[in-house]
Each structure stands twice: as structure tokens, then as C-alpha cells.
Amino acid sequence: MAKLYGIGVGPGDPELLTLKAMRILQSVPVICAPKSNYDSDSFALSIVEGVIDKARQEIIPLVFPMSKDKEVTKKFWDESAKIIEGKLNAGKDVACISIGDPLFYSTFIYVLENLKERLKDLAVEIVPGVSSINASSAAAILPLAKANERVAVLPATYEKERIRNALKDYDTIILMKVNKVFDDVLAVLEEMGLKDKAVFISRCGTEEERIVRDIETLKGKELDYLSMIIVRKQE
Ligand SMILES: C[S@@+](CC[C@H](N)C(=O)[O-])C[C@H]1O[C@@H](n2cnc3c(N)ncnc32)[C@H](O)[C@@H]1O
Hints:
Methyltransferase, Cobalt-precorrin-4 Transmethylase, Domain 2, Cobalt-precorrin-4 Transmethylase, domain 1, 5-stranded parallel sheet, single chain
């Protein structure tokens, strides 16, 4: 049976691709690249464009629309898993690329679960990637933890109460997927006196990278999906 690779390609800077990811991406006949709708480009694919060979390798875009409707997303995971199953059954190794790390808030996880149900003898290898959290911490030169400090990571799309609790209980709090709920998060940070401890990082590792420390200036603005806030309470 051919092998399925889950490859983390890092947060955006092609230099953060690991040597192992590069070696596998250059050797597989099929590369599957996620994108959020039919006419958009795949950000993950743009990261690896310099190391793959589109003339020799088959590149398959996998569409994963952003939807809270489980039935809708399941249909797309099914479709993607079916395509990958076909390639594996034909004896072709397949590399699925993911932004950052493939097992951290990644759609690849659902596709993998789906494929495990379809193929009982599925051979899988995961190549970890530099997560956007580590890359954002590095870009902002903001330590995530030292000594006995505790770190929480949560999607900001959670209810405000859960964000409030995390901000109360942890030393460093990372709020992912913050773009659509930024103003709500800002209000919570202001209310808890933590606004000045928060840093906004967007499109880290790309030419459009933004690091904003006076986060109030972003109020009411349209923000990129590839954005997070890191709140570090200690100096
Ligand atoms: C679906 S999660 C993917 C996480 C990814 N698997 C990882 O390991 O970083 C998408 C969220 O990751 C964060 N993210 C991904 N790439 C980023 C980047 N280049 N700069 C800032 N945040 C990023 C944002 O919070 C975004 O909403």
C-alpha cells in the first residue's frame, strides 16, 4: 500500500520548511493542497512552490470551505478522502500539506480520520511543521513560557466567558482565528486590564507580516484570517 504523508509546511516563510518535509515533497508523485474555496489559491501550496516540480508531480487542490455547518464540511472531507484513497489504491504516495503543523487545528486531521475508516491498512507518516504560534512568538520576540508558567491556546471564536477564564487562569494566552471576533476580544482585554499585554500578529513569515502592539488601532478594521493575538502577562 502506498503511503500517506501529512506534511507541515510552516506558517508562511519557505525557509521554515524542514529538510524532511522538503525531501518528501520532492519525492512524492502526488501533492494535495488545501484551499478554502474553488477560485482561491492555496496558501500552503504557495509556501512550497519553490521546492516542488509541477511538471513532474500531480498537484491536487482540496477545497475546504469555512463553514460551521458540520454536514457541509463533512461532505468536503469525504470528497477529499475519496480522491486521496483513489491515488493510494493506484500505488501512489500522497503528501497532504498543511499550514504550520498538520496535527494542530488543521483540516488534515479530519481527512486523516476519514481515510482511516476507509483504509484499514493505511500507512501514514506525519512530518511536523513550525507552528504559527512559535513563528509569531519569534517574530514578536515574545517568549511564550518560562519556569512554571502556564500557556493556554484557544480559538477566539469561543464564547467570551471561556476567553475570560483562560485570561484569568493562564500566564500566556494565545488566541487563534481572531480576525472575525477581534472587537469582542479587544473589549474583554480592556475590561480585564490586559490590552497592553497583548500583541497582534498577522501573516507571520510572509511579506505582509504585521506585528501590532497598540492593538486598539485595529478596532473595526477588516483583518486577515491568518492572525492571532498573544497575551503575555509577565514581563
Ligand atoms: C486552522 S488554524 C491552522 C494552524 C496551523 N496548523 C499551525 O500549526 O499554525 C489557522 C489559524 O492559525 C493562525 N495562523 C496560521 N498561520 C499564521 C500566520 N502566518 N501568521 C499568524 N497566524 C497564523 C491564525 O490564528 C489562523 O486563524
